[in-house]
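User: Fold this; tokens only.

Assistant: Input:
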Amino acid sequence: QATCLRMYWQLYLNLMGSSNNTVELSGKAMGKKEFVFTPISHAVYIVVKTIASSLFGKYELGAHLTIEKGDQQFLTMKGGLMYARMFWFHRCLCVFAMARTNKTKKTKYMAQAKRMHKELTNSLKNKNPNVLHYVSLLNAEKAALKQKKYQEDDVKKLYNNAITMSARGGYVHDAALAQERFADYLLNIAGDFHEARYHIE
């Protein structure tokens, strides 16, 4: 348990800029040599590393972290770790981001992302209010990849809804993440530099 807590501690230090690392879980809270994995600590490592990859924009790393057989029982939506849904949200976001940037493997990434998106949507349908803002942003990401030119306003509305929903729920870091993903969409798909700049700033 102490190792698991140190992983989160190191993630927070990385996010605060108190470490030279971003996605590497080594620094003041823990060094690489301290990693003696048990089945649960390895699952937590995958969760924390995926969250770091998503928040620092290292989407390829987040999309390709290997989930080992022993991790699966801890990462299930029902009965898994309390951070399991957060993990699947960030993993799905990384995969959607890769579908946006890697045109040759877009179909493969979309198939993976749709499965994860569906799991989170089902969790919401089963009356889990904690995933509402996750599903909201993933809806926007999915729409951004499938949009036709005339649907641009619909995609913008979905992103704005995701930002508002996250902020109102007190999830300020997720609201900032939604702003960043919206800016990426505006810059690289919609071609609207000025509005993209507004959302980045």
